[in-house]
Fold this sequence. Notes:
Oligomer: single chain
Radius of gyration: 16 Å
Number of strands: 5
CATH class: Alpha Beta
Helix content: 10-25%
Strand order of the largest sheet: 1-3-4-5-2
Distance between the termini: 21 Å
Largest sheet: 5 strands, antiparallel
Amino acid sequence: MAEPMPPQPHVFPCRVYYEDTDAAGVVYYANYLRYAERARSELLREMGTDNSTLLRQHGITFVVKDCAVRYHEPARLDDALQVHTRILKIGGASFSAEQRVERSGQLLVGMTVRVACLNAEGRPARLPQALRTAFASRQGSH
Length: 142
């Protein structure tokens, strides 16, 4: 029997604007983290929730605990980019994701991010079951 195909990653399209670049028109390295954050926020929306709803209904928020980034090629002014996000691991109070910033299928930046779930007091909080289930539907390897 063939192994099931891993789920397709969430794809977030974005464009490089002047404000994202340095004097040479190259994306400033820290802006890739912004693109990744936006992609994770849009993934939540696609799964039927968002950060403000999670805070209001469950009293939880997310913070980046760890992030490993590898830069391969630069993005430049006006490039159309795609951030591919795939959930790697789901813990009780955290999840890990692989995020790839690509331009026309070419890998520019790859990162692995571990995101912790916190309550209003800043203490670790369990991921709500509905969110765990939604993340599990996105879990897979690249």
